[in-house]
Structure of HTH cro/C1-type domain-containing protein:
Amino acid sequence: MAHSQKVRRLFPRPATAIVTGNVRAEMARKRISQALVADRLRLTQQAVSNRLNGRVPFDVDEIVAVAELLEVDPAALLHRSAS
């Protein structure tokens, strides 16, 4: 693994960390599985896991789709704590 990849993995972008934390929290509250999110986003479960672990950031379309699945406003996933 290249040095820049190690650094990025250890210190994810602040916005990525916020979105990831909020998505994980809402998934837990609503008991939504990674498999269901993967199905909705048309991604593999591993690709969703990479997003939820901050290795790959969610893109805007994915944030909107996940927000719809979680029944929250997409903006709520961008703030320090999801509603």
Remarks:
- DSSP finds five helices and no strands in the chain.
- The CA atoms of residues 67 and 73 lie 6 Å apart.
- The two ends are 37 Å apart (CA to CA).
